[in-house]
Specification:
about 350 residues, Methylamine Dehydrogenase, Chain H, five-stranded antiparallel sheet, about 40% strand
């Protein structure tokens, strides 16, 4: 089975390919000079998309329809002057229904494109949300980093504002943060202000949501109306960034804990991937083949899975690791890339 991994790094876009064997080929850097916060292949037409940021040219997106040989940059991406907000960074791209493409960005904003990412329109419902004055930027900025669409419902997660749900195509947004902790705030269970690190919806059970939060791992079985906290039962810490699911089994999820909010490296100095097979009731280490001692970081977009359940993650020291479904045996596929910001997986 051929695998294509679009990789976003601090120093450009890389394409990592395998024909199903043990060897991996690396192409890149594409878009040199741009920090690629998120890179993806649109499953509808095979186009490459990147959320790109540059200290001189600002926040943007790029699209390639020929496998990365040539690129088009988005036109006039910005925020309305009357909002008094500045577009600080682009964070995440997500295909929508029909020809829609969605873009999450800092400061807690969402854009929609209907022309393949060449032009973007800001989502007014989120831009003008009545709770916005209570949102605060996390350490990485006030980023809209998770966008999920399932069963006619759309979800976004913003650090540090929380998770929001829209049932009218983005026209209005309801905060869905009940029982999700914000332990760094005077009220530890506010309506908004939670620091979500990653949010995913299970593709075959759309009412089930998972999130890795600043304050724990959570699961919801009612589209975010209520949440159950799932750490403290096999995880070494409650803090971490990335999250991955098994596309066939809604009870299976993976996280990579970090030591703490002050110490952003893998928990206990071990590159540990933890797996639950019982919907978060318990967690077990699934790290065969990974180094026992490694003080590295895996960012929120750095853990991915493909349609067959194979798992991939990239580290801040430039390594990409792969494992079959279940995380049985990890292999270092690539090393010595620039610091990795995002990993996605496409098969074919």
């Amino acid at each position: 089975m051929a695998v294509l991994l679009p990789i976003g790094t601090r120093k450009g876009f890389f394409l990592v390919r395998s024909d199903g064997g043990r060897s991996w080929d690396v192409e890149g850097p594409l878009l040199p000079g741009w920090a690629v916060y998120h890179a993806m292949v649109d499953p509808r037409d095979g186009a490459l998309h990147a959320a790109t940021n540059n200290p001189f040219y600002g926040a943007s997106t790029h699209r390639s329809g020929d496998g990365g040989k040539t690129w088009e940059r988005a036109e006039e991406l910005g925020l309305p002057e009357e909002s008094r907000l500045k577009l600080n960074a682009t964070w995440h791209l997500e295909p929508g229904a029909d020809s829609e493409l969605w873009l999450g960005a800092d400061p807690g904003v969402l854009f929609r494109s209907d022309d393949g990412g060449m032009t973007w329109q800001v989502n007014r419902g989120l831009l003008e949300h009545p709770t916005r004055e209570r949102w605060q930027p996390g350490a990485g900025g006030m980023c809209t980093h998770s966008i999920q669409l399932a069963d006619g419902i759309m979800y976004v997660a913003i650090s540090a504002a929380g998770t929001f749900r829209s049932e009218d195509g983005g026209g209005s947004w309801t905060p869905i943060n009940k029982s999700v902790a914000a332990e760094f705030m005077p009220d530890p269970y506010p309506e908004v202000g939670q620091c979500v690190h990653k949010l995913l919806v299970h593709p075959k059970r759309p009412e089930r949501l998972w999130q890795q939060n600043h304050c724990g791992v959570y699961r919801s079985d009612d589209r975010g109306d209520t949440w159950d906290r799932l750490d403290g039962n096999g995880l070494p810490t409650s803090f971490g960034f990335p999250l991955a699911l098994d596309p066939e089994d809604p009870d299976v999820a993976y996280v990579i804990p970090e030591q703490s909010q002050e110490h952003h490296f893998t928990a206990e100095g071990r590159l540990g991937v933890y797996r639950t097979s019982d919907a978060g009731a318990s967690w077990e280490l699934a790290s065969d083949g990974l180094p026992d001692r490694a003080w590295v970081a895996v960012l929120r977009e750095g853990l991915a899975y493909d349609d067959d359940g194979n798992i991939y993650f990239g580290t801040q020291n430039g390594s990409i690791w792969t494992a079959p479904p279940g995380g049985g045996q990890w292999t270092e596929a690539v090393r010595d890339l620039p610091p990795i910001l995002s990993v996605e997986a496409a098969t074919g």
